[in-house]
Specification:
- The chain is an alpha/beta fold.
- The chain has eleven helices and 14 strands.
- Strands 7-8-6-5-9-1-10-13-2-14 form a ten-stranded mixed β-sheet, sandwiched between helices. A two-stranded antiparallel sheet has the order 3-4. The protein has a two-stranded antiparallel ribbon with strand order 11-12.
- The protein starts with a helix and ends with a helix.
Length: 384
């Protein structure tokens, strides 16, 4: 009798463990891709943008607060993001209003138009929420993800995957393999900034889905059908045949999507290391990566010259480091201007540079929510 009770208890325990696992596991497969919960976008001021642009490019400076921009402009002696309109401010709050957001919740808000708790990747209430990337693919348009971070990092993941935990790299990469996104470019070949993900372990799975797997910049080829470039690191200034800069990757992604998707595309470009350096109170490092982010933005803007239409949106997911700028000169700027190593609740800038079809004009709102970034992209990429 005692043995039977133990057996019954063991079976019950195993069943409970399996059941609990099935609750937290987030599936991404060929038939899903987040489409089980397409966005329910209410009528909004952004409706006026519908069908007005074939090219939608979203730049995200991770951790780039208002004072990061002001400090950078004072240090470099130039206006950052030249040619953009400094349109207004973005509220970066997550679903837990008493907490500062993290990159997962913030990027997911921009990717899906929904609010999330920290750590969640375009997933909540046991549902995958369709991303702007998935929506663009449903319209037959191209999609690209470019980052200085590991490709499974929170921001690229939010635009290409679904997971209950940003640390669930296996689920995130499985989603990316099955995403049908056209081009992934970022770090991921070896351990990079403490992230122990090696995409080379998934080379075969990506190749079986039609991707050309590149682990050196020199291997990138515009003739490839789909591309994943997972590099040992993303260089800041001095690129090599192995390690490219964000500027080089951004230019390649634009050329790739232009060649394959004349009907339009969505491209997300992230400068991730502004945040990483700020969390270390490393002013020199932050400024170097901010400069490279600006170089990438400038290069893409130059590629848009002569195009019939384009929509460039630039913002940050949150502020990091509680950076304080009080009119310091270049010589006075130093790491003591950081007052924290964590994210804050501060609003961040958003910028726009639009050349819309048929002379479409739009009056931007000065203060918006981070979910409005999705609504803007959704309207722009939509077909009328």
């Amino acid at each position: 009798m005692k043995k039977n009770n133990i057996r019954i208890l063991t079976i019950a325990l195993v069943f409970a463990l399996v059941s609990s696992f099935s609750i937290v596991f987030v599936a991404c497969n060929d038939n899903d891709n987040g489409g089980n919960n397409p966005p329910q976008v209410e009528s909004s001021i952004y409706d006026a943008l519908k069908g007005s642009s074939d090219r939608v490019i979203l730049f995200i400076g991770d951790g780039m607060g208002v004072n990061h921009v002001k400090t950078g402009e004072a240090y470099f002696g130039r206006t950052l993001f030249e040619g953009f309109d400094q349109t207004g401010l973005v509220n970066t709050s997550c679903k837990a209003v008493n907490q500062a957001t993290d990159s997962a919740a913030a990027a997911s808000a921009m990717a899906t138009g929904e609010k999330y708790f920290r750590g969640y990747v375009s997933y909540k209430d046991s549902k995958n929420f369709q991303t702007i990337s998935e929506y663009a693919k449903s319209l037959g348009k191209g999609v690209g993800i470019v980052t200085t971070d590991t490709l499974s990092g929170a921001t690229p993941a939010a635009f290409s995957a679904h997971a209950k935990d940003r640390g669930d790299k296996a689920t995130i990469i499985d989603c990316q393999i099955n995403s049908d996104i056209d081009i992934f470019l970022g770090a991921g070949l070896t351990t990079w900034d403490g992230d122990d993900v090696n995409y080379d372990m998934y080379r075969t799975q990506f190749e079986e889905k039609g991707y050309t797997f590149c682990d050196a910049y020199s291997e990138l080829n515009l003739e490839s059908s789909k591309v994943i470039g997972a590099f040992s690191e993303i260089a800041n200034y001095d690129s090599t045949d192995e390690t490219p800069t964000l500027k080089q990757l951004s230019e390649f992604a634009v050329d790739f999507l232009e060649a394959k998707y004349p009907k339009g595309y969505f491209l997300m470009i992230e400068g991730a290391h502004i945040d990483k350096m700020s969390s270390k109170k490393d002013m020199d490092g932050m400024l170097a990566y901010l400069d490279e982010f600006d170089n990438a933005v400038e290069a893409v803007k130059a590629q848009m010259s002569g195009k019939d239409d384009y929509s460039l949106i630039l913002t940050a997911d949150h502020e990091c480091g509680d950076l304080q700028y009080n009119g310091e000169t270049k010589e006075q700027i130093n790491s003591s201007m950081f007052h924290a190593t964590y994210h804050t609740k501060a609003d961040v800038y958003y910028y726009t540079d639009f050349k819309l079809k048929n002379g479409t004009q739009f009056d931007f709102v000065k203060n918006i929510d981070n979910t409005d970034i999705f609504k803007m992209c959704y309207a722009l990429i939509s077909n009328k």
